[in-house]
Amino acid sequence: METIKLRDEFIKLGQALKAANLVQDGVEAKYVIQDGEVLVNGEVDTRRGRKLYDGDVLSYQGQEVKIIK
User: Fold this and answer.
1) Which is it for strands 63-68 and 2-5: parallel, antiparallel or unpaired?
2) Per-residue pLDDT for the chain (69 aa), expressed as one digit of tens each?
3) Can you tell me the distance from the alpha carbon of 6 to that of 32, in angstroms, rounded to the nearest whole number?
4) Quick check: 61 and 37 in contact, CB under 8 A?
5) Is there a contact between 29 and 21 (Cβ–Cβ < 8 Å)?
6) Strands 51-52 and 11-12
């Protein structure tokens, strides 16, 4: 499982996908999130602006990324 270390209190879902190199850019992030391809803590979330905090886990195409402080 990959990790993303927070610089601030949270990171938005679209930004986290880009930071983990799971998508090329914000446009791709927007589409995969809207299409319900991204899970946050095991549940589909279609909000690109969803705030992820310490301990949250996002999943996309079988890859998991944990958000750490």
Assistant:
1) parallel
2) 899 999 999 999 999 999 999 999 999 999 999 999 999 999 999 999 999 999 999 999 999 999 999
3) 22
4) yes
5) no
6) antiparallel
